From TrEMBL:
Keyword ATP-binding included in the entry's annotation: no
InterPro entries (UniProt xref): Amicyanin (IPR035668), Amicyanin/Pseudoazurin (IPR002386), BlueCu_1 (IPR000923), Cupredoxin (IPR008972), ET_Amicyanin (IPR052721)
Subcellular location(s) per record: Periplasm
Domain Blue (type 1) copper as annotated: residue spans: 49-131
Cofactor(s) listed in the protein's UniProt record: Cu cation
Major site of localization recorded for this protein: periplasm
Protein species of origin: Paraburkholderia kururiensis
Keywords associated with the record: Copper, Electron transport, Metal-binding, Periplasm, Signal, Transport
Signal peptide region: 1-41
Protein's recorded name: Cupredoxin family copper-binding protein
Amino acid sequence: MRSFAKAAPPRRVRRFNVMALGTALLCAALALLPVAPAAFAADAAQSSSNTVNIDNFAFSPATLTVAKGTTVTWVNRDDIAHTVVNDANPRAFKSPPMDSDDKFSFTFSTPGTYKYFCSIHPHMTGVIVVK
């Protein structure tokens, strides 16, 4: 005689809940958000005030006013090389060609107006005013 045993109920397969994981990660990241800007705010404010970005074939800001003894840093954000050269006296300050994300710094110790340009792209000009 044949025995007809009752079949076991199918096992429930637990599925990985991607939405729940994403929500948990987002909440964790947002919980850290108020701490992160406070930690970096002082550094960002200090570095951006004396920084000239080179982006889209332009110096930004085009005119920067600083105090005597200030070090100004140019940062190339373009995908092409640029230079920074003093217009009146190239010996005063002249950067080598800067690739993407390269930096060049110069300390202005004498008050005055310093016009500069990119020797590769002479239409790119800027001014540093030292008080």
